[in-house]
Design a protein that fits this description.
This protein is an alpha+beta fold. Helices cover about 50% and strands about 15% of the residues. It folds into two domains: about 20-290, no CATH class; about 305-510, no CATH class. Strands 1, 2, 3, 4, 5, 6, 7, 8 and 9 form a nine-stranded mixed β-sheet that branches. The chain is elongated. This is Transmembrane protein.
Length: about 500
């Protein structure tokens, strides 16, 4: 008998090795799509709560919805940058990519897990979670594409960093705070983006940026004149994106007169970072960890009650409850910079008709200050809490205590130690209305019972507000918590608040 030699039925690598070899042979364009799809999926997993919060901001009409414009503009800018010839050297160091990418991912974890909670009261004003998202995406690109390709699109990454909301809010305040101001500030994104996308030379970039400003302002004026009641997102997104698309397309067609029209005038080069499998587990683990960090739930803004006393009118004083008289009325129209067009803060000084020994040992009539704001942008109440409106950078605030004010309205009681006024005061805040228009009412009682006692003064002026915002940015809010609050006037504010709420329904004849 003769032995039969084994027959080799198949040659080449099998299993994971075969899959890897097949991936390496895929065209660079498809590998590019696979990696970007992977990064996008991880971003959705890691920051799902942030994206859902942004969608809620858009639904509520908050000016923070401008963030949707940033990635759309960045994609258009990236197309313009990608059309330029690849200039980075074909030098690649995977160790450097992993080190730099890991540092960015760790920073994203710290920002989302630690710093976000430190600025919990100003979550909507700062949106530090979007900064963490930016760090995560940049770090993933460094790990999966390499450091040099990421640097080549440095201006695009700078544009995406505009999702950090504080500079945008400051600019909107500077321009007046209304819908038109929000749209005009968004044109900064369009002007910068168009200049980068068309800027093969400095002169060409300057022309593109100027043209984007002209087109954008033209569209913005059309929206403001013919569609004044359009949602704020229309003011923010339509002029900016129209300017980038129109100017970019016109300048592209002008530069390619008499030549073939192609999106990319150069061939797609092979991806610099080929061996990326070692970095895939890293970005997956970080994305999963980020997904477990909750968004801040702390707020100093009273929830908006749907129980409202009829029609809400900006600038209309509140009816004084029985046993109290309005002794002074003052209006602050400057708050339009914060709370939108037509918003007016009405300050009413109300004094009790007779004294009560329960609230003053000498039975002197107590004086309270009632501030009310009607805004057609109720979401702004959460963006600019009282600490911003009243410039309370040195005040120590207690935790909120819920108070039932009747008629389906719930208020929030707060104790404050104000080192600027050198007094301790309590406040009661409540809000009512709808998603389209709402009123926030804040009642103050200070521990100084004299007629000339100092009360917190609202400020809608530009420079005090800017100073407050910048101070809070560097200081945060955790260090200014009041650990042992005292509610000396808690009973007074509760009784007065219930009477004030009831008086509004009685005055208008509305039913809760």
């Amino acid at each position: 008998m003769t032995a039969t030699a084994p027959v080799e039925t198949e040659s080449g690598p099998r299993g994971p090795a075969a899959l890897l070899a097949r991936y390496e042979n895929i065209h660079p364009v498809y590998r590019l799509i696979i990696r970007w799809t992977f990064i996008a999926a991880l971003t959705v997993v890691a920051f799902w709560d942030s994206l859902a919060s942004l969608a809620e901001t858009s639904r509520a009409g908050g000016i923070g919805a401008y963030v949707w414009t940033v990635p759309a503009a960045a994609i258009l800018v990236a197309i313009g940058v990608a059309r330029r010839n690849r200039t980075e050297l074909p030098i690649h160091d995977r160790q450097t990519d992993i080190i730099v990418g890991t540092m960015g991912l760790v920073l994203a974890l710290l920002l989302q897990g630690v710093l976000l909670q430190r600025y919990a009261l100003f979550f909507h004003l700062l949106r530090l979670d979007f900064v963490a998202m930016w760090l995560f995406i940049v770090s993933c690109c460094i790990v999966l594409f390499g450091l040099r390709p990421v640097i080549r699109f440095a201006w695009v990454w700078f544009m995406l960093l505009l999702a950090f909301s504080l500079p945008y809010y400051l600019a909107v305040i500077l321009f007046g705070g209304g819908k038109f101001a929000a749209g005009a500030v968004t044109l900064l994104i369009a002007g910068l983006g168009t200049g980068i996308a068309t800027g093969r030379t400095q002169r060409r970039g300057a022309i593109g940026s100027a043209a984007a400003w002209i087109v954008g302002f033209g569209v913005l004026l059309v929206v403001g004149v013919f569609f004044p009641n359009a949602p704020i997102q229309v003011y923010q997104q339509v002029p900016a994106l129209t300017a980038i698309c129109v100017v970019g397309t016109v300048m592209y067609l002008r530069s390619r007169r008499g030549a073939p029209k192609r999106i990319l005038e150069r061939s797609v080069e092979p991806l610099a970072a080929k061996q990326v499998w070692s970095g895939v587990p890293l970005v997956i683990v970080v994305a999963l960890v980020l997904s477990f960090f909750p968004l801040p739930a702390v707020t100093t803004t009273a929830p908006i009650s749907r129980s409202t006393p009829g029609f809400l009118e900006p600038g209309r004083p509140l009816a004084a409850p029985t046993g109290w008289s309005t002794t002074a009325v003052q209006t602050y129209e400057q708050v339009q910079r914060l709370y939108g067009d037509d918003a007016v803060l009405v300050r009413q000084t109300m004094t009790a008709d007779v004294g009560n020994v329960r609230w003053d040992k000498l039975s002197r009539p107590r004086t309270l200050v009632v501030d009310s704001i009607v805004s057609e942008r109720p979401f702004a109440f959460g963006v600019y809490p009282g600490r911003v409106l009243y410039g309370l950078t040195a005040a120590r605030l207690s935790t909120l205590r819920p108070v039932d004010l009747g008629m389906g309205v719930t208020g929030q009681l707060l104790s404050v130690v104000d080192d600027d006024l050198l007094v301790t005061w309590n406040s009661l805040q409540f809000a009512w209305g709808s998603d389209d228009i709402a009123q926030r009412v804040t009642i103050f009682a200070v521990d100084n019972h004299e007629p000339d006692a100092p009360f917190p003064v609202p400020s809608g002026n530009l420079f005090p507000t800017l100073r407050t915002l910048l101070t809070l940015l560097f200081r945060g809010n955790a260090v200014l918590d009041q650990r042992t609050p005292t509610f000396k006037d808690g009973e007074l504010l509760t009784v007065f608040g219930r009477a004030l709420v009831g008086a509004q329904f009685t005055d208008t004849g509305a039913q809760p």
